[in-house]
Every structure is written in structure tokens, then in C-alpha cells.
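# step 3/5: fold
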Amino acid sequence: MSMKKLSIFMAALFVFMLFAGVQPAYAAQYNLNFEETAEAVYMVNLDTDTVVFEKNADERRSPASITKMMTMALALEMCEDPANTYVTAPSYIWNEFEGISISHCDIQRGETLTMQDLLYGMALQSANEAANIVADYLGNGSISDFVELMNQKAQEIGAVNTHFTNPHGLYGADHYTTAYDIYLIAKYALSVPGFKDLVSTTVYTAAYADKHSEPLNFYTTNKMMVKNSDYYYEGLAGIKTGTLPESGRCFVSTATRNGFTYLLVVLGCPAYDENENQLSTNYAFLDTEKFYDWAFSTFRVKTLVEEGKIVGQTDLDLCWGKDYLLVMTDGRFTALLPEEIQVSSVVTEAVFEQEAVRAPVKKGDKVGYLKLVLAGEEVGRVDLVAAESAEMNEWLFCLDYVKKISASFWFKFAVIFVVLLIILYIVLMVARNRNRRRYQNVRRRRRL
């Protein structure tokens, strides 16, 4: 297969329909121009909800600190005023961290901070103790009760392959999610007021931390947002990093350039060498940069069909002196396509609801749909409507009515029934006449 035909075929898988509120997303196994290290990937164009790349998207994986996206989003929904809600850290929340190295933001036992401070501690420094403190507070003293709320929210938004056992993301055999579910969680989280501010901030100073004599500053782990970092990527915002030996490096982010926005999930990038030493290179960041560069240079939203375009005609009945009706599109159809694909590559096919439209017809009445086909694949539909009005002729209507009645089953049944009655009547009359003549002949012979 030539490269041109291959490009057209792959483009057919990318097309996203914006018309009539129908929004299918097509996932493509596209040949990337680079080699990714991530074991699972899910990438979506948020302008059209088109999936442009996926890899092992439904494979269950340990999410590490990506978990905190759900913790933060749910906390923002449950806490009406985070900036003025003061929370004191109970001592027991550190018990599960004894003897292990964790990411934290130096909150002390019994220290009081605002809910907003705790959320920024999670968002920027991926602080595990902050996640436990928030879960304890909003779970009314029970971290497990808050985690159950996290699981309920996951089911509610369609993340059915997700299960949490803690609010921070440390490894657990029954603590898992998928790249696709993380996409759903990220979309939900981004819709929660205040969440975008959390995850797009690079430096934050706690408003209140009563056990620190110096300001308590938080610095983001997302170096792709830090301008003096080697990983800085212009237009990238949020969302969350995560790293564990069982998870590898994980990263969820969004990026916007030239009016296009993508959301990308990469999971399972290399994080440790064979001696379990953490690698200095962040391969999740490198993969992320390559995916965004590829997407921004490859795809464009193109209009395949304009609204109000005359696309043909269909047969017309019951209209005197005219036997056809012009039809037009009832909306625009736009699609996310590789830049090199021409709109002229799209083939259209008109499909009508009836063999012939029956008058009266008003301009704008729906009569069918226009099928859009690219490289043999149907990529969407646009409603077809009458481009003109057509009046009904009463004589033609009456003639058609008679024709319909005569063609109906009951009319045929009635005709056959009447014919049978007539035949039966004739038979009876013939038989009666024969009997009468026979009777008359018998009487005549008796008289003789």
C-alpha cells in the first residue's frame, strides 16, 4: 500500500463528527515518527474528543501519585471554602509511612494548615501526608470512608476499571486504574472549579503552617511547566506526575498550541535501572514532548461539508408538474485529519428515508442523511433537508389514495370476498332454477 493510501486510511479512523450533537471518537493505530517508552498511552484532542493515539489503554496498572488527581478533585467538590478551612494533622496518618521513603511537603504531626495549603502540597510536591490529612478530614476521621467516596466517583464518571485503596497512590495489589480511566478522571477533575489553578501552579507558599517558623514553600514536580528546566514545554499545563518501582514514571498533562488542546496519559515509562536506582532522565517527560510535537505538527481540524450545501435531488410525488426535490445539508461537518489529507478525498453518498418524498414539503424538512466515506470507511453523517418547498396537488393525492386502497390487503380481501359471494349466489341461483325445472317436469308428468 502506498504512503498516500495509508495516510488516507489512517485519517478515516481519526475523523470526529461535531454535527447534531453526535460525537464518536476514533482511535487509531498510527505509525508514530518516534519510539515511545511508555507501556500504556492515551491521547485525546480535547477540541473534538478525538482519540489520536492509544496503547494498552485498558490494561490495569498501578497509578502511583496520579491517584491524587481524584483526591484533589473530590476534596474541591466537598470543601466549600478551602482557603478558610483549617485542618489539623492527626498523628496516626504517618503510621503507614514508617520505614519507607515517600514524597512529602514537611507537614508536622499536629500542624494546622488550610485545606488550600494541603491541596497545593499534593498538587505541587505530591505530598502523601497531605493526601492522608485531607482524606481523614473529609472522611470524618476515616481515611477509608473517603477512599470509598473516591471509588464511587470513579464509577460515576465511567472509570469502571479503577479501584482505589488509599488517597495517595502508594502501591497496593488492589489499587489500580487504566490509561483510559485516568483520561476520564482527568476530564472530570479539570471540570471542577479550582482544579486547573492547583495543577498549573509551579511555586506556592502555605498561607498558614503553625509549626514552621519559616515560610513553607511548595515546588512542583512537573518540570515541564518550569521555564528554566531542561524539560520545559511551552503551552503545557498540569496535571500530575507519579513514580513507583511498580508503576514506572507516569504523567498526565494537557498542552495547547495554535488553538488546539490535547490531553495525554503516559504510564510505565522507565524509572529505575537494574539495580533499582532511580534514573536521572525522566522518560515520561521525554515521551510527552514527542507526543505533543507529533500531534501539533500532524493534525488539523478541517471542514468536510458546509451547512446549506445543495448535494443533489430526490424523487417527488403528489406535486403537479414537478417530480424531483432539491436537497441540502443541515449542518457543518468538521473532522480532525492529518494535514496532508485533502478534503476532496472524502466521498459523499445521499441516503433517503423514502424512495420518493411526498408533497407537501416545507423547506428545511428532513428527508435523509449524507454519508461521508474516506478510504472505504464511513466517518460520519449529516442530515439532509429539503432545499425548497413543494405543494401537494389534491387530484394527485386522491388518485394516489385510491391506488393505495386498491393495493391494500383488506381491499383485495373484500374484492375476493364479494366475488366469492357473487359466485356462490350464481351457483345457488343455477341450482335453484334446476330444482324448479325438475319440480315442474315432475308435476307435468303426473298430470299426464
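# step 4/5: annotate
Residues 1-29 have pLDDT under 50 and may be disordered.
# step 5/5: archive (pending)
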